[in-house]
Amino acid sequence: MIPARFGPPVRAGRVQLRLMSADDVDDIHSYQGRDDVCRYLLFEARTREQVARHAASTVLAADGDYWQIAVVLPAGGGDAERVIGDIYFGLKSAENLAGEIGWTSYPDFQGRGYATEAASAMLRRAFDELELHRVIAEFDPRNDSSIALCRRLGMREEAHFVKDLRFRGDWADTGIYAILDDEWATRAAVGRRGAR
Questions:
Q1: What is the pTM of this model?
Q2: Residues 95-106: b if buried by 16+ CB within 10 A, e if exposed
Q3: What is the mean predicted confidence (pLDDT) over 26-41?
Q4: For the chain, what is the domain count?
């Protein structure tokens, strides 16, 4: 239900989700400071100082509030805990119970299912706890990895806007994928039946 506080860390398969903290700046900068990671993002590669200044809400209450959630690989096998990516989750419309999800990952950890586990856990929370009606993902449609992740999450393409956005000195397209609460519930029910 809205308003909602993120609360304690949440286990999501092999990773843990928690609000980002000042202690995460170096890990986050290790990927948000890379041109290849930011290729399709609305921001250029960030300096360490820009990452440190990037603060998010702790409570979702009003349109535009958002959580910046660290995707953490727990310590183990002699390795320390590490932030390997992040999930953005914003409240687009409190009145219409609409949210927005986005993700970024460190390249060395892509293709292993971590983003799917993290984004699935966030969608579960969006629909089961926050009781949202609709969640969208908005991204550059050239980003094949994000399209594949949306499809794994059960999201469907809703729109492809052509040259609707000024992006780094040129016109770019915008893709929108979405999932509704009843679609999520059906998907979750099928998953539970398949797990028996």
A1: 0.91
A2: eebbbbbbbbbb
A3: 92
A4: 1
